[in-house]
Amino acid sequence: MAFIDYYKILGVDKGATEKEIKSAYRKMARKHHPDLNPNNAEAEKQFKQVNEANEVLSDPEKRKKYDKYGENWQHGEAYEQQARQQQSQQRSYGGGGQQDFGGFDFGGGNGGGDFSDFFNSMFGGGPPGSGSGRGQQRYRGQDMNASLQLNLRDILESKKQTITVNGKNIRLTIPAGIADGQTIKIAGHGGPGSNGAPAGDLYIKFAIPDDAEFKRVGNDLYRSINLDLYTAVLGGEITADTLTGKVKLKVAPGTQIGTRVKLKGKGVPVYKKEGQFGDLYLTYNVQLPTTLTEKQKELFEELAKS
Questions:
Q1: Cβ proximity of 161 and 174 under 8 Å
Q2: CB-based contact 47:36 (threshold 8 Å)
Q3: pLDDT per position as a tens digit, 100-125
Q4: In terms of DSSP bridges, do strands 144-149 and 89-90 run parallel, antiparallel, or are they unpaired?
Q5: Within a domain: residue 133?
Q6: Residue 37 and residue 42: Cα distance in Å, rounded?
Q7: Which of 180, 209, 238 marks a domain boundary?
């Protein structure tokens, strides 16, 4: 594979700006365009090289690779190919139940026949050697990434769920207590390998927002609960909601605004630790009466005097 000096093809130096490259490309493309050079094989070849040079130099990432390896690109060829295989194309999809990740761009298309072997080897035209007559090399498939949104109630126990990736249904178990932002790996469900090499892996990142009533911190949950003035002063029994149902609580007489009580084991399951749970912390919000009868006002006045 012959090295092609793209800067020379466009007639610009290595420090050329994007604007200069764009201008040079337009000029050279007009000069060698097949419509202006009918039946001219050399002009057609030059036109393809001009387009190829613009394809690389107008793209910051491709230009960076080209500038890095230059005429020594042969030594970086295998590295670049492996790096591409390891990089992930990331898209986010939310929602519970059956998930469809079929819209992901999993990368990897082959370069067309209008590009040189050098271009195809450097920028994704297939395994090194595919255009040079050498033996085909094996490369592991590309890893894939996705996101899945759940709610707090979805993670109270381990559950099986089916997702669809690239047209293929995958049955997976989501462990109880999985954390917001946590990623799990499903081995072998990434992109296919080349020439019999193993497939890549699928990485699913979980998004678990706080509930409207409960705030999660680690494995513990926090929420506020309203308490009427009379119960706060005299004590009594109330019913409170947890993620797993209602519980009855005894309120001590003289409970102050902001008092916090702990319900042991009523938090989130501890990830992959069977039978272990965080705690639920309730903060009392004492509500003052807004409408009082005359009799109630008199009683409060007597209390104030005493």
A1: yes
A2: no
A3: 333 333 333 333 455 666 666 666 55
A4: parallel
A5: no
A6: 9
A7: 209
